[in-house]
Every structure is written in structure tokens, then in C-alpha cells.
Amino acid sequence: MSTLVKLTWVETKLFVREPLAVIFSFAFPIFVLFILSGVFGTELDRGDEEEVRIWRGVTPNNYYLPAYVGLTMAAIGLITLPLRLASYREEGVLRRFRAAGVPVASIIGSQALVALGMAVIGSIAMVVVARIGYGTELPQLWPETIAAFALSALMFAAIGVFLGSLLPTARTAQGAGLIAFFVMMFISGAGPPRETLTGAMQTLSEVLPLTHVVILLQDAWLGFGWDLPAMLVVVATGVVATAASVRFFRWE
Amino acid sequence: MATAPHWFIAATIPAGRFSAVPGTNDTHALRVSHLSKRYGGVVAVRDASFEVEPGEIFGIIGPNGSGKTTTVECLQGLRDPDQGELSVLGLDPRTQGSALRNRIGSQLQESALPDRIRVWEALDLFGALSPRSRSWASLARDWDIYEKRNSAFASLSGGQRQRLFIALALVNDPELVFLDEMTTGLDPAARRLAWDLVRAVRERGTTVVLVTHFMDEAEALCDRIAVFRQGDVVAVDTPAGLIERVAAGSTVTFTAADSDLPWLAEVPGVDEVSREGTRFAVAGSGPLLAHVASALVARGIAPLDLDTRRATLEDAFMELSGGDDAA
Question: What ipTM was reported for this prediction?
């Protein structure tokens, strides 16, 4: 246990010392959210049925905030975490850890905990910016929002560990992670609203985990309730990713 | 740190630290019997057997690709052997790897730390893995990296990294430590410092397994040495024993103006006299230099370049490992 705590603390410090990781995980989603909220605005024409449908009955800035909380987790889980694990393997850090007897559960656990912690901090920073900048609402349903947040963050941490276990080098991890991230960003509800996507795009977005994370978070945040199907997809994805990480984890 | 003479260290190994492993008669610190390992179709190690006694500094030498690193990786449970029995501190590295890793130290080739981790953080982290760890500060002072304690790993020089790795291998006060090419990348002064520290580590009762490319290092440090050649262990002996196998005796050389010195063959211990121009080479055994020198001086010849050469471990190594590709 003390190994896990110590390693998590060291990993937290290492994360903070990587300026690019910090920028990508925190600043980038906040920056895009700030732009989108500014462009699409803080008002909704209640008389325009089409517009109400597209924005799920809330103003665009409120629509986007939970989506970008999800995107922060995606940035950590798809880019930061796989890159870190794959570099560790490539450079021989994992080999070094293994020879010293660091348990694999501590390595994976510390990465997941750091990812979770960073998602919390990144999301709080985002809420503060959105609230100050555009007067965006806080969650309507707090317990549901917190549950949705925890499940989603853990799912992306599991995906991150899975990708970091599967992808052999830092280069492949970075490439694959960036592709997955931007595809999800644009068609999972953090780009154009999903209602405006074409049929094929909507179908594709159904199989992307970020879509279900955004639905789960939006429903809780905006007060629509608890979306059970979305939750089941998020939990199932997390379980499968965890099992696959155990199966594919390689020390070198 | 104090540097005691070799004989002193050997005499002060604490008794009892390596009492027989409970339930077995195995008093070896380490035992390899009939180890074989292949990667695909390439044989890395073939039927290797040797034992290491508690408190020894045991060397493993051989050309690149002769199976040294594979052998120590199998011993640490980092690779699974294809065949053979391994016992390290009475444990089987294959099945008891995690129990074993708490009791051994390991300095690996081709390993690294996260770029931005600081020296003290690495020592502190690895120390947290074992309850009986030494304080990181004293270890950092021993290995001369204390003043670098707040530096990031990526900013360290090759020698500093190497010293940090050795310190990390010793942080859990191991009963047995594997040092794989410990002094690669160190400058000559740092190498000598490392040798003294390895002797001091053994003085505290730790068995040392030293994989090395440097024959002077093996000769200076090791009690016994296993010589690897293309996956085979071709010899296990003391450095002196290995030298004895390939070349007993010595050669005395000097320059003399006389074209011929027929009486040299009569000097005690001389086996063979050869001459190239004015340069003589006298091969033989026993206290050859003393006899030859005394005979020369008695005849009024006092060459300035009178010299003697005994076979070194390097000669033995070249002969035993049988290759010019030897490192």
C-alpha cells in the first residue's frame, strides 16, 4: 500500500513537471470550451423547436460544459496515460521497476489515481472558468453528477492503461492516442452537437465511449436524470479495458 | 568510506547471515544447474552450471552475446529459463520472484528512470519497497550523488546515472546484489571508487554477482569467475586459477648489445630464449626475473629496459572465450 501511495505521489509530481501534458490535459479543453461557449453563446431561442432539440433544451454554454468535463478525462486517458506507460516500457523504466519488485498493481493503480486526480482538478478549473466567463450553471443533480464523473474517469483511466499496455512504443501510443482523441472530440458531442451530425457520423459516435460519457454527464449535470444505458456502456467498457490491460500488460 | 585490504574483507564476513536455508541443505547463495535458454532459434545459454558461495564477489565474464545477461536475468526471475534448476537465496526465481526481489538488489543494463524524477525521489521510492531500507541520504553520499539529489534523472551524466543505479540496487540492503556492467560509463577515478564500494558492500555481508567486460575489474574484485563463451560456461575458477590454466610462468625481456647470450639457457627456471635483433625474450617459470637479472648483472650487463610480463586475466580470457570479438 505504501508503495502505491508513494508511487502515486511521485507520478503526480512527474505529471506536473511535464508542461505539455499539463497544457493538453487542462488548458486545451478549457480553451476550446471557452471558444465554443463564446461562439454559440449563452442564449437559446425557446420558440425555435429545431434549436431546442439540438441543444437539448439548454443554452450552448451549459450544453458544452459537461461535454468538456468528459473531454478532459478523454485527453488524460487517450493521450497522457498511454504515452507515459509506453515510454516507460520503451525506455526501460518498467524493467527497472520490475527488477526492484514494484508490483504491477501499484504501477497501474498509481497511473489510474493520477488520471483521476487530474480529471478532478482539470474539471474544477473548467467549471470555474465557465462560471466566471459565461455564468454557466453548476450541476443540477450533484450525486448523479459525481457518480457519472467517477465512473467515466475510471473508464478512461482503464482505457489509458489498456492502450499503454497494448501499444509498444511512445511513438505509436502518441499517434494512436491523438487520432482516437480527435475523432471522439468531434463526433461525441464535444464538437458539433450530436443532433447535427449526419446519420453515418451518429452511428459511428454510438460506438465511441466518449459519446456515452457525455450523455451520462450531461443528463446528470443538466438535471435530466440518470441514463442507465449510457452508464452500462461506460461500466462495461471500463471492465473490458481493465481485463484487456491485465491480459496485454508487458514489462518490456 | 574506508577501503580495507582484500584479505581483511574476506576475514570479516559476518558469520550466520547465510545460515542454511530452512528445509534444505542448500548453503549456496546461488545455484545454477543445467540452465538453458533460447530466443527463437538462437541459443543464448546452454546447460550452464555454477554456484556462488555466500559472501563471494563472483564474476561473470564473456564476449557480447555469450549469455551473461540472460543468465542473470533468469536468476532474478525477469526471464523464464527453458530448462534447468535455479536457486537464489534458497528461492526459485520462477515461482518466488516477488519474495526474492525484496532480498536481492539489481542493477540492470538498459534500464532507466522517468526523465523528470529527482535523484532523492528515486532513492526514496525504491526504498519504500522494503522495510529494512537504508536512508537514501547515506546511500547517496556513499555513491557520491548527494549533491545531485535535487537533479532530474535526465540531467545526470552517464557516470552519475550509473552510480544512482548502483545505489538503487543497494537501497534495500540486499543479501545478494547483481551488478550488470556496473562501471560502464564511469571515468577511471569513478571506477576505482566503485570498486572500493563494492568491496565495502561485500564487507557488510552482501554476496555480489558482477557481470563485467573489464578484465582488470574482474581480476581486482572477484574471488571466482565464470567465463561464458557462446552460451556455454567454459570455466569457473579464481582469477589466478584461470590464468594458470592458459599460461603458467612469465617472460623476461630486455635489450642487450651482445649478439648472443648462450649462457642464458643455463639460468635456473629458463625454458626458452628467443631474440629479435638486440631484443631478448626469456620464457620460464619460478622467480625468473630475479635469476635472469642476477645472471645479467654478474656478467656486467645492466639493461635499462629489463622487464617481466606475466599472463593476465585478459590473456586467459582471450584464450578461454576463444575470440577476437571478446570485449
Answer: 0.84
